[in-house]
Amino acid sequence: MLNLKNLLSIITLWIIISSCTVLPDYFGNTKTNQWMGQNKSLIESKNLSQITIPGTYASGSYTINKYSQICHGELISDNNNAQIYKLLSENESLNMQQLTNAFVTIKYPLSKQLDRGVRYFNLSLCIQNDQIFTSNMYLGETFNNINKQILKFLSKHPKEIIIIDLDDNLWDEKGLMSEQNIDIIYQNIIDNYDSFIIKKSATTSFNIGNIMKQNSRILIASNNPSLYKHDEIWHKDKLFVETSSKHWATIKKLTNLQIALETIPNLESSNNFTLTPIYSYYDPSLTSVDEINNQFNNQLIADYLLILPESANFNIIVGDGHSIDAITKFATRNFND
Asked: What CATH number did the domain enclosing 250 receive?
């Protein structure tokens, strides 16, 4: 656990790093838009669970603004996002831009996230107005535009491997998504990605070299039984293990990283992925309105990654717009091809 002594050491190192004009260049010669393919010789003998993979949470929220519509199904669900929305909307000092900003986890389009090295995407979907949107309380990017960006990227960089994590809750205008609408989601996935999907019937391991020899490039997971009953969708709970809980507070995020360092198991022969969340996740019972709109110390999380030793062992680190570059630098720190 992250005790006071360790925390003081982290803060001291952060002050030292922040005072430097140049951070360590962990990129070397690696191009982040093709870091997997460019370093094939270094990673092809490994499983996807044995390398560090940069990820983003609510990856399609970059289009959310003060004009965005609310996902009706999410609003009536009384889930965590709905409670945060209620807390914020009752505060008369906030304008619409401040209200919606709380649900924007990243400001970069998916294409730019991919170019910056992100390979894991968390997406919650909402069907509304006869369209499929990503959702984070408000309707974000359309699923069609998400698909287009991924397919365009893979056409340019065919050796990259992408993980799509469909969030636990899928919504439509009446609440949790109906079976009929879930079928629409599934058909959309097949129509766009069928030849690229890593199917359960086609593999018993996620060995990177074997995946790269085939055409399959996209791993899709969900906890929805109406989706994971299909060969193309993996059961999320059987695939991913979270190393720690999600938090808003900086100290809790740093603790997450420390816990992950101390508890991540040896995954030499495992197909299970570990997820380490370091994005801001608000708890309406603990987080105040002022804290939700305050990005204080987010840079500390990114800086801490940059001072970790090269031997530090992480799998999927899920961040937000404040940490993409730091996670990618950390993930590619040993690549010099």
From this structure: 3.20.20.190
Give the model's pLDDT for residue 16: 47
Query: Is the Cβ–Cβ distance between 304 and 317 less than 8 Å?
Result: no
Question: Which positions of the chain have pLDDT values less than 50?
Answer: 1-2, 4, 8, 11-12, 14-27, 267-269, 337
Please report whether residue 337 resides in a domain.
no
Q: pLDDT value at position 268?
A: 47
Asked if residue 288 belongs to a domain, the reply is yes
Q: Is residue 70 part of a domain?
A: yes
pTM value is: 0.90
Which residue range forms the structural domain that includes residue 175? 4-331
How many domains is the chain partitioned into structurally?
1
User: Does a structural domain hold residue 336?
Assistant: no
